[in-house]
Amino acid sequence: MKVIQAKSPRANGASASGISSSRPNHSSPGMMSSSSGYYEGDLSLDEEALVSMPEATLVECFGNLAITKRPAHLRPPAAFCLPLVSMKNDSSSGHALKHLTLTSVFDALHPYVGIPYINRRDVCSAMNLYWLKNCLESEQLDLVHRFALEMQVHLSACFGCRVVLDIYGSSRNGFGTRLCDVDMSLSFYPAPPQWAHNSDRVMRAVAKALVDFPKAVDERYVNAKVPIVRFRSSDMDMEADISYKNDLALHNTQLLQQYCKWDPERLPTLGVWVKTWAKRSGIGDASKGSLSSYGWIVMLIHYLQQVEPLPVLPCLQEINHQKGENVYVQGYNVYYWKFVDASRSRHCRASVFDLFVGFLDYYSSYFDWGVNVVQMVSKRLEYKLDKWCKYSMCILDPFETDHNLAQGIDQQMFEYIRSCMEHSRKVFTNRHLRAEFLSGYSFDVSEFDSRAHDEMDMERASQFGEFLLHKCIMVKQAPNRQFRDRSMSQSTSNSSTSSTSAGF
Predict the structure, then answer these.
(1) Percentage of the chain exceeding pLDDT 90
(2) What domain count does the chain have?
(3) How many angstroms separate the Cα of 214 from the Cα of each of 233, 235, 487?
(4) Known PANTHER family for this protein (predicted)?
């Protein structure tokens, strides 16, 4: 038996399987692709593209590609791991199965193929536009840096030594929005003064010093596991936190920023969308017993590393390197690959819609939370240690790998999170969702489609995005487990102890 392996043709006629496409071409991987496959390298179906393939190799190929043969964590619907197989009889002998064609027409076996193309396209437009309207712009980030520099000068004058404020968190890692908080890590250069021997003492002194800083209002000391000072900016609509020597958080920020460079067109969009979706659904606030935005970003990156057969993102901490390149901070190795190959992520041309729905399906249906842990350090599947079996969810910090980001989630909240993901997956895979949205604006859907062959205009797409987020909100409210507020206001009248300890 002779077996032929070929790539599927471009959308310029009938494909090998009899499927044709007339979709417009988009170069951005975040948008819907017009080609027949989700991966780059589609070739025309000519004699030069045909490659002979032994029968034994074919059998092994089917065994490896079959969904049922894959481990559970490699069987998310968004994996696009099956080929399209077309057959034709031999013209001379009439034998069936004389030729098999393996193509990359993954649309034919796509789990969401029942969703009309125009629906998927407009959802992608809504998600991309939401990021465009809410992302943290460079001008706003410049104002934040100027504000931090002015505060740095003020604190240096108050303490009589050089103070350095480094910004970390959402405002720097590529997943920031215009309303995100600003996190800053305080350190002394070249060395801390003698009185600054612990973070509690330093933060109380900072709270005292900010009373005299005119651009900071509502300052208060928060006695948490990591003591912080929280305040608001008087000239910008911004809330900020200051912590002491939060070096691991600085490296975490740089790592996430590096991942955004590998896929700048889809990852920031997906990250902002996932964070917003989680907060709207009542499962994105760690102070209420759910998961933090940082935890959702780690889950997203882990999923994008697991997409098969071509992952969207690599594991930057797993790439081979010399032991001498390891860097240790507080006993943890913070090394990661510093080079960027953005073309690698473009091999997988799945849209932000496909990846978001796959993300929901992966964690609600395929990921075994009772056995496995979510981690972005390596591609291999990690299992729970004995100390983590008591937690319903286990999400590991990429550097502080003995820290579970989901340790505050109880069983009731875990079940609610899974139900939210299942509900949202049903919302996004509802083929009538777009028609419902347009009908709400008194549009005749068929007439609208005939008049508007292009994507929705910006105003309509923006409204569609809000409509999608609203539909994801469940009728059942999230279990509210409010943690005790341990914040204490710091003022000149009750801060004499801090003033003395700081050496003022």
Answers:
(1) 51
(2) 3
(3) 9, 10, 22
(4) PAP-ASSOCIATED DOMAIN-CONTAINING PROTEIN, POLY A POLYMERASE CID PAP -RELATED
Do 238 and 294 share a domain, yes or no? no
In which domain, by residue range, is 438 found?
264-471
- Helix (H) or strand (E) holding 359, with range, is helix 352-361
Q: DSSP character for 363?
A: I
Same domain, 163 and 293: no
| Burial (CB count <10 Å: 0-12, 13-18, 19+), residue 279 | middle
In this structure, are 386 and 489 located in the same domain? no
Percent of residues, the chain, with pLDDT higher than 70: 70
Instruction: Give the pLDDT confidence of 224-276 residue by residue, as tens digits.
Output: 888 999 999 988 888 999 999 999 999 999 999 999 999 999 999 999 999 99
Do 445 and 317 fall into the same domain?
Answer: yes
Residue 218 placed within a domain: yes
Can you say how many angstroms the Cα of residue 145 is from the centroid of all Cα atoms in its chain?
25
Residue 351 lies in a domain: yes
Using alpha carbons only, what angle is made at residue 358 by residues 357 and 360, rounded to the nearest 5 degrees? 65
Mean predicted lDDT score pLDDT of the chain: 77
For residues 441 and 373, membership in a common domain is answered with yes
At 404 the three-state DSSP class reads strand
Cα 190 to Cα 161: distance, rounded to the nearest angstrom? 9
Enumerate long-range contacts of 93-102, CB under 8 Å, 24 or more apart.
97/1, 98/1, 98/2, 99/2, 99/3, 99/4, 100/3, 100/4, 100/58, 101/4, 101/5, 101/6, 101/16, 101/17, 102/5, 102/6, 102/61
Whether 240 contacts 229, CB under 8 Å? no
Same domain, 82 and 214: no
Within a domain: 105: yes
CA-wise closest residue to 462 among 129, 178, 119, 136? 129
